Amino acid sequence: MNMEVVMGVLLGIGLGAACGFRIFVPLLVASIAIHGGFLTVTPEFAWLGGTPALITLSIATLLEIAGYYLPVIDNTLDVLGAPAAVIAGTILAAGFIGHMDPMLQWGLAAIAGGGAAGVIHGGMAAIRAAASATTGGLGNSAISTAETVSASLVSILACVLPVLAVLLLGAAIYLLVRFAISLKRKLAQAGTPDKVEVQD
After folding, report:
1. How far, in Å, CA of 39 to CA of 159, rounded?
2. If 162 and its partner were Cys, which of 10, 33, 66, 188 is the partner (CB 3.0–4.6 Å)?
3. pTM value?
């Protein structure tokens, strides 16, 4: 693969993985970039740079961001958004991964783009659930803001410096996985006394 193909792969992975923070923000950033002629997408995804897509994604992005600031709805969006993040991440990644066999293109997009988006979304959902349990939901607004900012920055960075964006996403995935493991251990330890009492 030449450098142009490699950069396209990294760009696709960066934008796809960013869907784990917010589903529609990376799609909107990509749509704006394609519409303005800053990015080139594979022919079958040219619709992403069209005006109808730009308008639709703008509305969807605003609704998604607003929904995460509403109690109860934010946790519901986490559940419903899990498969959507994987699908959006896969589609967005595939749109920029070109010049290769379609099976390899979609396989790489599903694993690196959709898979990374799923891990990030799951990790952020775990953080939100922990915040809801410890702060009564008061900390969720701060988490929602951080997610939106992260999605925006990573998406823009993926368009400008895709290598750096992928490195940052790799670090984010590592930290989220460590947090999830730590949270699982704490929950297991918290449940130990109850098991002992039942046995007595």
Report:
1. 8
2. 10
3. 0.84
